[in-house]
Structure formats: C-alpha cells, structure tokens
Sequence to fold (329 residues):
Amino acid sequence: DWNMEDVMEEEIKTIKALVGPEDHVICALSGGVDSTVAATLVHKAIGDRLHCIFVDNGLLRYKERERVMETFETDLHLPVTCVDATKQFLGNLKGIVDPETKRKIIGREFISIFDMFAQDLEHKLGKRPNFLVQGTLYPDIIESCPPPGSGRTHSHTIKSHHNVGGLPKDMKLKLIEPLKLLFKDEVRELGKILNVPQGFLKRHPFPGPGLAVRVLGDVTEGNALEILRQVDEIFIQSIKDAGLYDSIWQAFAVFLPIKSVGVQGDKRTHSHVVALRAVTSQDGMTADWYNFEHKFLDDVARKICNSVRGVNRVVQDITSKPPSTIEWE
Ligand code: XMP
Fold:
C-alpha cells in the first residue's frame, strides 16, 4: 500500500525534472477520471505550459460538455481548449452502420483534430509542444508480469488498450504517463488529494467512441442521438436517486434501430425501442448484469415512455459478459 501524498510529490518532482522550462505539454481530456487526474497532476507540476483539449464529437451524453468543462475550469483551473467538432464527426459517420468502421472513423477524426490543435499551439507559442500526457494505468501496461523495479508483484488481467485510435505517428511527442504504476482505486485517491470533486472521481467509465457504439446502426439517422441522451439521463438520474450509482460498474441506454407498435393515450404508435443495460464488474473484463428491483424498473420505464417523444418500448439487457460484451457495438 502506497501513500498517495508521497506518490504525488514524487511524480511532481519527476515531471519537473523531465519537462524543461521552455517545453510545452499537451493533453487530450476525455472527461474521464484518468485523463483528468493525470492532467491535474501535470498542471500542478508545470502550470500553464500544459495545454489541454476537450473535443465535443457530437457523441457525448446529455449536457456532458457543460458538465466536464465546469469541472475543468471552475474546480480544477485547467487550461482547456474546448473544440466543437460535432459537424466533422457526424458528417463523416453519416450512412455508416458497421461498428468497426464507426470506431475507425472516430479515431481518425480525433487524430485530425488533435493535429490541428498542436499546429495552432505551434503558431501561438512559436514552438512545437514536445510532450504528451496520457492517463495510462498500470493494468493497461502490464502483461502478466509487472515491469522490473516497479515494486508491483500482482499479476493482473490484461486489458487491451483501446483508446481513441492512438495518436499521430509523426508528432514525435515524448510521453508523460504519471499514473502508469497505479490502479484505478489509487488514481481515485490521488484525485481526491488533488481536489478533483468526489462525484467526478466516481463516474462510470464511458467509451472513447461515445454514443456511436450505443446507437446501433447509423448514428445520424433521425433524432436517435437526442432520444438516447434523454433516455440515458433519466436512467442514470433514477439510479442516482435510488442510491445505486456507486454499486454499479456501468449503466447506460442503447438506441435500437427498430420500431414497434404501442398504444399511448388513445392512439396507436409506431415508435422506437430502447434497451437499458447495467452491470457490475471488477475491471470490465467480465461483468454480471445488475438485478434492479421490480418497482425501480417499472418507474424508469414509465418515466421514459411518458417523457421521451418517439419511444414506446423499453427492454432490459439481461446478459452478462461473456457471452455479451458490456457495450452493444
Ligand atoms: P466491452 O464492450 O468490450 O467493454 O465489454 C469493456 C469496457 O471498455 C469500455 N470500452 C471502451 N473504452 N474506448 C474506451 O476508452 C473504446 O473504444 C471502448 N470500447 C469499450 C466499455 O465501456 C467497458 O467499460
């Protein structure tokens, strides 16, 4: 068991020694715990020679951009540029239904935005940023044996590193990975010392490709994304209100590209079906579906059909991983 105060002081020393007084550092914030804690730590070490970017790819959850920008700016005082790339991402995803193709396009567009950000900075600063911060964790880097000298003796499950597509090969950025010897719970502890709000540190994981892997089929079809955002928000808020959020690894809604017949008021409807998924897990490698109480599910389903236009049916995903994956695409 490491003392996180010591880990923080050590890391700050290391970063200060590594990054010279003329050097500049960039970091892509995802809105997740790891990149946020990594950036906050680096900011503490080198101040505003850190330059962060947050990309709104049009695939974010309800009010996600406002919520995370508020945390970055107001709570953490991080220097963040928010780029609205909604049109670019959704334009390129139009008509695409194959899950792997969607992921590839998103990775590619992300790299192009990141490249532009680096170029803009080069203009502004008169020199190219030469370091990159990544929120890589210990389980991301080890295979079965820990790196020599790391002090780690655990053998831990491998998790394939599937963040948004990697980064431009020709950028020649040196990596700063201040969390690479830590487990998730240690990162949360470090975040707490760094004043990252507690609610933020407990957020469920969210995939890099965002809602694109939760709208099955063409994400630009009709108002699928808007419907999904509303349904997801009701589901998550209900989970929080019931005090269940912290007992669940991940919960979310999925938009299905089918319609079914319903009756609402005195009218027949032909509307969309949404699925709810909630799982418990240790590390995302395996997962069990979460068994809500009857009343909770009944309330959520009613609320969704009563308040989200275009939805007349709610189903629950009752498969574990394996055989299913956590996400649907
Ligand atoms: P699956 O669906 O493979 O997901 O059972 C396991 C965990 O990984 C998350 N996930 C991703 N995270 N980029 C990410 O950063 C991705 O492309 C991605 N795909 C899945 C998923 O939300 C779950 O927590």
Q: What stands out?
A: The pocket of xanthosine-5'-monophosphate is lined by residues 162-163, 205, 207-209, 250, 284, 321, 325-327 (CB under 6 Å). Residues 153-165 have pLDDT under 50 and may be disordered.
